[in-house]
Amino acid sequence: MYNEYDKESFFKEYARMPRSRDGLAAAGEWHQLKPLFPPLAGKSVLDLGCGYGWHCRFAADQGAARVLGIDVSRNMIEEAGRRNADPGIEYRVCGIEEYEYPEHAWDVVVSNLALHYIADIGQVFKHVYRTLKPGGTFLFNIEHPVFTAGVGQDWIYREDGTPQYWPVDDYFKPGERKTHFLGCDVVKQHHTLTQILTGLLDAGFKLNAVEEAKPPEEMLNLPGMRDELRRPMMLLVKAEA
């Protein structure tokens, strides 16, 4: 898994983002993602690409019996231990592609804004299916294919600096995308909608929900947020093993 987050300059910029400072309440997709969680009391939860550990802490607060958060970034894991430590949570430096995925070990697997860094997403889906208990839940949020297929993942702007339109190119060509994010060059992976959904079905999952994230009403008056309604940025998926 590509790891930009252990570069100090990038990590400092990431730390300034609202979702980094204020957690789930500042995440524009949380009002849609939260209702998709199954009951977590007494359950085991694996978080792939846990970042600061916000979703791990949510699971622990909901009564999960065991929570493991993995992330390839040591910076992220250290920050998670500072911000969201809990006796029921274990944090581990480990890439999503490197985790062992023991068979039938977890009730819930969650991943938030991490899978668009994974090249072979279909293989990860198969690993997750294997590691879930029968009837277990896989819940993830990934950058929307229209977003990852954006040219430079940015708007085309008018002369006055306002967004004119969102360009999409090579949509049906999955693979590496180089973009500029938080002042740094970042490598992501573009996956088409067909690739994502068919990959889940091929792995054995049943689809429970597919939602395109929209910012909540209370965020729409923040600078630039109305433009978020003009193109999707995130895709939320809930699947059952």
Number of strands: 11
Largest beta sheet: what is the strand line-up?
Answer: 3-2-1-4-5-11-10
Average pLDDT taken over every residue = 92
Helix content: 25-40%
The CATH superfamily of the domain at 40-144 and 192-227 bears the name: Vaccinia Virus protein VP39
Euclidean distance between termini CA atoms: 24 Å
Can you name the CATH architecture of the domain at 40-144 and 192-227? 3-Layer(aba) Sandwich
* Major β-sheet annotation: 7 strands, mixed
How is the CATH topology of the domain at 40-144 and 192-227 named? Rossmann fold
Following the backbone from N to C, one meets helices and strands in this order, namely HHHEHEHEEHEHEEEEHEE
Strand content: 25-35%
Which regions contain 5 or more consecutive residues with pLDDT less than 50?
none
- The CATH C-level name of the domain at 40-144 and 192-227 is Alpha Beta
Q: Which class of secondary structure composition applies to the elements? A: alpha/beta
Based on Cα principal axes, name the global outline: globular
Number of helices: 8
Radius of gyration using CA atoms only: 17 Å
